[in-house]
Amino acid sequence: xxxxxxxxxxxxxxxxxxxxxxxxxxxxxxxxxxxxxxxxxxxxxxxxxxxxxxxxxxxxxxxxxxxxxxxxxxxxxxxxxxxxxxxxxxxxxxxxxxxxxxxxxxxxxxxxxxxxxxxxxxxxxxxxxxxxxxxxxxxxxxxxxxxxxxxxxxxxxxxxxxxxxxxxxxxxxxxxxxxxxxxxxxxxxxxxxxxxxxxxxxxxxxxxxxxxxxxxxxxxxxxxxxxxxxx
Length: 231
Hints:
The protein has seven helices and no strands. It has one domain (12-224). The protein is mostly helical. Helices cover 66% and strands 0% of the residues.
């Protein structure tokens, strides 16, 4: 049996995913802005939500089927939390859920899409579930923002940053208890990433906080010029 192909950063498979990550929300936005677009919103938000949740279930099933340690694949990465907030924002137009998804997704999940911590390429199930989860969050953010007109605020930026501290506090306790590395709070990912430029452990965590806050402000900048509408 031939081994699965190895993932190549910015290889053909990766570039195809990056293209789809932008092309899919662009198509969905065109659909809701076209004639009769309001009728298309419920099917779109339900479809995106079902895909995101079902992907989490499939991932756990795949891990169990391979006999891998399930505790190391629990939905405890920041991107997993962003998956659940994204679903809440899609289905309920929940403002706090949208705010968390917007800042966590663009500051964190987007980096995972660009420099993924992966070993296998398409069509390995790990490749598929990884990008469905991470690119799915980006698709959800772009659709919520550009398709449904939801907007972040300066206050929501700080709420998202506070939520990040809650995530880190909860996750580091679970990491120490389970002997895992969710959130990369105990060590860096094996694949090249932004963390390689932020110093050794534990200093890269403090550096990441600064970088994360700077990215929050960067992604808020487009909305700082024109105040968001109420709602």
